[in-house]
Amino acid sequence: MGATKTDLFTQQQNEIAAMAKALAHPARIAILQYLVKKNACVCGDLVDELGLAQATTSQHLKELKTAGIIQGTIEGVSVCYCINPKVWKQYKELFNAFFKEVDLQQTCC
Amino acid sequence: MGATKTDLFTQQQNEIAAMAKALAHPARIAILQYLVKKNACVCGDLVDELGLAQATTSQHLKELKTAGIIQGTIEGVSVCYCINPKVWKQYKELFNAFFKEVDLQQTCC
DNA sequence: AAAATACATCGTAATATTGCGATATAATAA
DNA sequence: TTATTATATCGCAATATTACGATGTATTTT
Fold first, then answer.
1. How far is CA A64 from CA A6, A9, A46, B20, B24, in A?
2. Contacts 24+ apart (CB under 8 A), A67-70
3. pLDDT digits (tens, 9 = 90+) for A20-72
4. Pairwise CA distance, residues A37 & B98, whole Å
5. Do the Cβ atoms of A67 and A99 come closer than 8 Å?
6. Please, what is the Cα angle at B52 between A104 and B67, to 5 degrees?
7. CATH code of domain B11-94
8. Residue A11 and residue A74: Cα distance in Å, rounded?
9. For chain A, which residues make up each domain, given as ranges?
10. Residues above pLDDT 70, as percent of chain A
C-alpha cells in the first residue's frame, strides 16, 4: 500500500487531484506567482528568490513542467521558464467548474 | 530534510499550497463532489461510494475536516458530513484570485 | 446489561515527496 | 581546447502520505 488507487476514481477526479498536487507546495506557488508577475521568463533568479538549493528548485520546476503549467526553452546557457497560457487557462476553468456556484447557503446537519 | 520549508514562503503561499494539498487526492475530490451533489450529508455511504476501506475513508474525511472544508456532526450512531459553505467560498475565492486574469496571450521565450 | 452499528484511531507497511550535495550535461567564453 | 556558467540528474536521508487490519469508543437496539 501507500500508492494512490487511481483506478477507483474517474479520470476527471484524478485530473483535478493531479492539478491540485502540482499546486500543493508553497515553492511551486511562489514560482508561479513570480512567473506571472515578471511575465517575461526568468530562471536562475528563482534560486535566489526562493532560498532553496539549486537542485531543489530545479526539481520543483520539473514538476510544474510535467504538470504542463509551465514551459522551458533553452536560451543560450540558461533556460527560460514561463507560464503555459493554454494549460493555465485549463487549470483555471477546471477549478472554476469544481467550485462553481452550488446551493451552499444553508449548513446541513 | 523531507519536510517542507514553510518559513521560506509567505503565509499566503503556504495557505494556497495547503488548500491545494487538501484537494490533491482523487478520493477527497470524490468526497467533495458527492457532498456537493447530495447536499444533505451522507457518510457511511462514502465507504461504498469510494471503494476504499473504512479506515482509509475516515482518514480522508479527517484531512478535509482539518482543512476546514467539510464539517461533521454526530447524528445518533453515525456522523453526518457536509461542506462548510464559508470555507468552500474561501477556497473558491483564493483559487479565483490566484488564477485571475493575467496577460497570458503571448508565450514568452 | 449485552449486542449491534457507525466511526475514529492505532500501528504498521508500502510508497511518495522534499531537500540537498555531488556530479553530469550542454552551451558560451577565454 | 579549456574554463566557466547554468541547469539537470543521481543518490541518499528525512519526512509525509496512502492504505488497511485491528481495536477503541460511543450511541442505539434488543
1. 20, 23, 14, 14, 14
2. A67/A18, A67/A19, A67/A21, A67/A22, A69/A22, A69/A32, A70/A31, A70/A32, A70/A35
3. 999 999 999 999 999 999 876 777 899 999 999 999 999 999 999 999 999 99
4. 12
5. no
6. 40
7. 1.10.10.10
8. 33
9. 10-94
10. 91
Q: Alpha-carbon distance A82 to A31, whole Å?
A: 10
- Verify whether the Cβ–Cβ distance B17 to A23 is below 8 Å: yes
CATH T-level assignment (fold) for domain A10-94: Arc Repressor Mutant, subunit A (1.10.10)
**Span between the terminal Cα atoms of chain B, in Å:** 34
Of A69, A66, A39, A103, nearest in space to B36 by CA: A103
CA contacts within 13 A on the Cβ side of B1:
3
Give A-chain residues touching B88 at CB under 8 angstroms: 99, 102, 104
Residue B105 and residue A82: Cβ atoms within 8 Å?
no
**Of residues A6, A24, A51, nearest to B26 (C-beta):** A6
Residue whose cell numbers read 533568479: A45
Beta bridge partners of B56: none
Tens-digit pLDDT profile for residues B29-82: 999 999 999 876 778 899 999 999 999 999 999 999 999 999 999 988 999 999
What letter does residue B7 receive in the DSSP assignment? G
